[in-house]
Amino acid sequence: MSPVAMPVASDTQFGPLLDALRTAPTAPDAKAASDRLAREVSKAGFEHLEDSSILPTLHAFATNKKSGYERESAAMAFQSLATILGASAGPILLPSLPILFDLYMDKGDVVRAAAAAACKAILKLLPAESARIVFRALEDILEKGKWRSKVGALDAMKTFTSSAKDAVAIELGTILPKVEAAMHDTKAEVSSAAVKCATALCTTLANPDLSSHIPSLVKCMASPDAVPACIKSLSNTTFVAEVTAPALAVLVPLLTRALNDRSMEVQRRTVVVIDNLVKLVRDPNVAATYLNPLVEGVEKIAKGAAFPEVRAFAEGCLNTLLKAGASKDGPPPPRRDLEAESASVLSSILILLPSELVIVSASGPNGPHTPRHSLLARTLDFSSALVADLIHSRRFADADAWQRCLGIYLVPWVPGGSENATKLAEQVRQHFHAIDKAKYASANSADDAEGELLCDTQFSLAYGALLLLSHTTLRLIRGRRYGILGTNGSGKSTLMRQLRDGKVEDFPPQSELRCVMVEHSLQGEDTSLSVIDFIASDKALAGIPREKIRSQLLEVGFDDARQADVVGGLSGGWKMKLELARAMLYNADLLLLDEPTNHLDRASVQWLEKYLTAQKRVTCLIVSHDSGFLDNVTTDIIHYENKKLVYYPGNLSTFVEKHPEAKSYYTLAATSVKFAFPPPGSLMGVRSNTRAILKMTNCTFTYPGRSTPSLYNVSCALSLSSRVGIVGPNGAGKSTLVKLLTGETEPQEGSVYKHPALRIGYVSQHATHHIERHLEKTPIQYIQWRFQDGHDREILEKTTRVLTDAEKAQLEVEFVGKNGQRRKLEMIMGRQKLKKSFQYEIKWRGLDHRFNTWIPREELIEKGFTKIVQQFDDLEASREGAGQRDTSAHVVRKHLEDIGLDGDIAQYNEIAGLSGGQKIKLVIAACLWNNPQICVLDEPSNFLDREALGGLAVAIRDWAGAVVIISHNEEFVTALCSEIWNVEAGRLTHKGKTSVVEEAFIEGKSARGSGVNTPARSRVQTPAASTHGTPAASGAEDKGTTGTPPVKKKKKLTRNQIKAQEERRRIRKLNWLTFGGPKPEDTDSDA
């Protein structure tokens, strides 16, 4: 029997309206009947929804299996009720959602569409604060509903992520497991909808560090196979923001899975990430609630992991978890009793309601009152739950939220309508606010700021597995210049980048505080433009007139001619000036200067000092390794101490007076950092330390597209005892000179001679030049890759070693033998000494190895095979140095530790995440791996802090090989280099040799070095000043060395002895070719 025939409905004014709705022949008719019904309810009052059995009747329509018309009409009626009655009807219509979601499985498309529209209309009525209540209703549908109902419920959850972000984030811990279960539903549509819903839910995380990982986190929920990749990306992330309950709700299930992974590498990364995350959890209740499940897994790894270092990491992680309040056996903190809180709020609201809305108990007039109508009771239950949440989160200042959660639902019931309902809601808010004030004493701290406060925020900073700063304060005053001090890898540049990107918690946005960072590179920008066009093309400077840009460029030293130059052709120093000019045009409140003096000559540094000290309204944060610059510029020092920022008024000198251990910021040798360079290899045929082993003669070089040469008619030479400092203004050609010497580029005129067995270790001006293609590798993996074949794989990439088309054609030229036989060269197989030169074993094209021939070096060069000979010389020289070195991980780790790079960072951190100082240490370590005889350092002081720079200086001083240094750090160059090459306007001038200036080293000379053997480090005299004919006869050489034993003349071998010796050599070589290992020396020794 149809419910419309029920007597209750027929006798009321709503009977005809319901009957018209039931019998509506078309959708427009049903829509019109629904709207009339809703308008009548709006006039008569909400109580008629129950008194006149409207809701029960509509429910009966919706569940009538025999009539599709009634089901469609019911859905339309609910949509009209929601649209016309407005937000006040939300709590009354919410219980009808399960019936409407059941209609999602209806066979009729029109019924399904009407049900979807009705659900959307009802959910739209509910405020953001109601997410918890709505999600409980939708969870029930997700568990019990059929597949289309589930898809609808998942889509409904998604709609809340944009309007109720914070409320959804709080619910993640409860809702995500239900959504994750839906991901594994057998119906593909449900699974797909669950993935989309989980992705949308995770976007509500108020943690910017995790936003880029949301797709991989969701993928892990759907597929456990994705866990290792996700853990790897998490371990390479800079974590800055506090880790809150929503973030842990997402991460803890993933981390629990990862702890059970069989891979030691995944386990190691996981415990390190957990250790880091736990340090960023500030609320102990949150820690105790979410972290308990992790304790058992971490404890298992700490006791049973196969690798000792993984056990060590897990033990540290376990201690951190226990300190945070997590426990394997302890009970979790008590959860909120939502029912009791809501009941308490409801009883208070009922007392404050007008008497005509409640029934007062005769036995207890002051006791709990009862609402006069059941729908009012339903509405007040809903509002009480929302108000309880407002009280719990102490949102008393947000009056609008109280109107959304209470006032709007009282409008249809309170006499006087909207105005009285608003007053009543405000009365309730004040009532609970007064209770809260009495409960919590307010603490007001007076701030006697020394000036205008730019920012005062508490934050934490981490890079993946490494916690850099923990719960520290950043407090900046306008007009101050702060120097940031800390060791390499402590996070100075990371802090600057996070401030630039706006990722530091509670740091004011760009609209409130204009923050600009000046860096040392122009990577990723169009460097083909002229200087002035490059600045003008910046979108942020679109409104700046061109004349102002020109005058600003003039101010930093760009005359009109240089403004027309292409940006890509500028030297490192001029690029830094260009960045400074651009930053000044931004009119910044806060200027972030990361190594501003890198690549700047002394005149430019002095100009920068004057400019910064003249800015009275600009605050500066400065990271620099130039102690003189910091001393002249800073008004305050911010020092990294135990993962905190500690503030010291005054400049660097004042700071050092208070902290004498920071003296390493001033002197090179006052350092706790010790570098140890491997000894240089021997050079075949070179017995004198003053013999030229690398020489340039009358070289001229012009960059493509330029008319004037960068270097003109330059001649110079290096010997094993050379200690050369190359100085000169920016753009003079210093780096170009070094590139010609090392073979990175080739001169258009003149020649460069290099000893065939010479190995050069080269650290370029930009460290990433060497490692930019290997950012996904760890430092150890990079060195293993580079030297895995027994030689340096990067050697053959040099411009001077790449064969041109003409040189490839030369390979087709035939050799004519003495017997007239013609052969073509295929490759060089070997090399051995021939008098004062070498001869090479040639493999002929198309012929077996037994037909190989030995040809002297001079003959090959004469026939045009210079590059092929040089290629083989480079490989052979590199093989002599690197071929005998073991590339096992522990050996490479020890080598990197000797150059000052932390062993754990070298083994586990990818190169992409290293600081500038750590990258330069890696490049220095790589260039020294094959024991070079010459070390060329182009601006090594740019990325190293004072302590590391001091360690590098001591290591260079004690090293026995030749050194070439380009640096604007005058103290560093003059302390180490006895010979100065001054490059200016493309021309080179030499300044005479002097002894090493020992005064720059506070400590005495290290006893460890072999420096006594080279005249370059003799304190008393140098080869230039020696009265003896050769360095070997110099008196300075004899200090600390024993007398050379007399050379014994070798006894001539008999013919049989020579034959036996040749046989032994043949067997040695055969064994080497068969079994591998280090190449046997071509020596007369029988060993």
Task: Spell out the key features of this protein.
alpha/beta, six-stranded mixed beta sheet, 45 helices, elongated, disordered N terminus
Please describe what this structure looks like.
With 1087 residues, the protein is an alpha/beta fold. The chain is built from 45 helices and 23 strands. The strands form six sheets. The chain has a six-stranded mixed sheet, with helices on both faces. It has a six-stranded mixed sheet with strand order 15-20-21-13-22-23, with helices on both faces. Strands 16-17-18-19 form a four-stranded antiparallel sheet. It is elongated.
Q: Strand portion, in percent?
A: 5-15%
Tally of individual helices:
45
Residues in helices, as a percent range = 40-55%
Number of β-strand runs: 23
Largest sheet: 6 strands, mixed
Task: Provide the structure class.
Answer: alpha/beta
CA radius of gyration is 40 Å
Principal-axes shape call: elongated
The overall pLDDT average reads 79
Low-confidence segments, given as residue ranges, are 1-11, 441-449, 994-1043
Strand order of the largest sheet: 6-7-8-5-9-10
What is the CA–CA distance across the termini? 111 Å
